Each structure stands twice: as structure tokens, then as C-alpha cells.
Amino acid sequence: QQQVKQSPQSLIVQKGGISIINCAYENTAFDYFPWYQQFPGKGPALLIAIRPDVSEKKEGRFTISFNKSAKQFSLHIMDSQPGDSATYFCAASLGGGSNYKLTFGKGTLLTVNP
Amino acid sequence: DTEVTQTPKHLVMGMTNKKSLKCEQHMGHRAMYWYKQKAKKPPELMFVYSYEKLSINESVPSRFSPECPNSSLLNLHLHALQPEDSALYLCASSTPQGFQTQYFGPGTRLTVL
After folding, report:
1. B16-22 contacts: CB < 8 A, separation 24 or more?
2. Which residues of chain B have pLDDT under 70?
3. If chain A, 114 residues long, is cut into consecutive pieces of 10 residues, what is the mean pLDDT of each piece?
4. 3-state secondary structure chain A
5. Rounded Cα gap, residues B15 and B47, in angstroms
6. Residues of B in contact with A95 (CB under 8 A)
7. Which chain B residue has the Cα nearest residue A32?
8. How near does any CA of chain B get to the CA of A101, in Å?
9. Cβ contacts of residue A55 below 8 Å, gap of 6+?
10. Distances from the Cα of B6 to the Cαs of A42, A86, A92, in angstroms?
11. Which of A51, A96, A104 is opposite residue B42, by nearest beta carbon?
12. Cα(B91)–Cα(B39) distance, rounded to whole angstroms?
């Protein structure tokens, strides 16, 4: 079964700290891994995405680390800010062709305290 | 411009009403999606249109009827809904090939009384 397991379910971090959210997948055919950020009452917004041919991708304070052999990937938010408080979803899909399905993790509610 | 717009933002309807949700994108994307999202849950795929043709129906009840009038517009027609259908309905779009980054709209908050 195609699943993406996400942890932790919730996370509280102090301002300036590092937030780390982990995801693990089962289907080795997945080859596209986006992270979405969602604020209450809003739609998910693409934050950063990675393909398994790289081990790390950084965009500003956000970094994805990818471990293909372990079938795991994680989101690191450096210098976390109160404005980063949101729900984060990892996802995976079969890139290419006409497969449109994103398999989402269950989400992590991040709270950054001032 | 990576904007997907949805109207209305909020909708309250009775179980006997007929209403429609609308979605629009001008990114030239030829794949469009409807998702349903319950509180504290990830989005759940309902329908996918590719090149204006229905490509995926995730066994959604017939009280939800999608329509894709053209490559920029996507509608979701609602009829005889149940209270448990209350949720955030999200539209998304992507290119239909390659690594299909999906861009989501802000959603319509639907309440069924």
C-alpha cells in the first residue's frame, strides 16, 4: 500500500530554534517529494520539493534532507519564526507520465513560540 | 503567477440545495484537481481532469458532480449533500506531464446544515 508516514504529529519550538519534521515512505517507485505549508483556513502552499537523485535541497531557511536507502526524508526549518507556525504536510508521487496522485503524510502542526 | 482562485470562500447550504464551487487558473496548466479536506487531516483527492477530460474519480458519491468547461475553469456541482460533507474543498492545478507540482487554491469552506 502506498503510504507516507509523518512525524511528529505536533511540534513546539522556540523562536530561533530548528524545527525538524520527518517522513518515511514505502513505495520505492516514488520519485517526487514535495512539502506543503498550510495556514488555518488557507490552501496548502508548496514550500520546497526534492527528487531522489539529490540528498539535500536548501531554499532560504528551509532544507530537505533525503535518504534514499532508508526511504526517509525530512524538512528542517532553521531559525524558526512565529510566522512559521502552520501545518506541514510531506507528500510523495510517481513523477512523470500521467500519474497525478499525491500521497500525503498526516501532517505536523508546528507552533513556534516567541 | 502561481495563483489558483476559488469562489465562494464560504458556502452554507441545506441538504436539499443545489450549489456550485468554482475554480480558475491562468498558469496554462492542463491538469486540474478537486480535493476535500477535513479538519486536521491531509487533503483527500476527489477528481482529476486532464486536458478537460475526467481522468480520475476516487469513487466520489454522485451528489458531487465535477465539470471542466475549458482549460482554465473547473466547477464542482453539489446536490443533496449530507452534513458529513462539510469540509474545506480545495482546487489545484498542475502540468499534466513530468513532475507535477500541484498548486492549490485557498479553498471553499462548505457547511451543510
Report:
1. B16/B80, B17/B78, B17/B79, B17/B81, B18/B77, B18/B78, B18/B79, B19/B77, B19/B78, B20/B75, B20/B76, B20/B77, B20/B78, B21/B75, B21/B76, B21/B78, B21/B89, B21/B91, B21/B108, B21/B110, B22/B73, B22/B74, B22/B75
2. 1-2, 97-99
3. 88 98 93 93 93 92 95 97 97 73 94 96
4. CCCEEEECCEEEEECCCCEEEEEEECCCCCCEEEEEEECCCCCCEEEEEECCCCCEEEECCEEEEEECCCCEEEEEECCCCHHHCEEEEEEEECCCCCCCCEEECCCEEEEEEC
5. 22
6. 98-100
7. B99
8. 8
9. A65, A66, A67, A68
10. 11, 21, 25
11. A104
12. 16
Cell of A45: 502552499
Cell of A22: 520527518
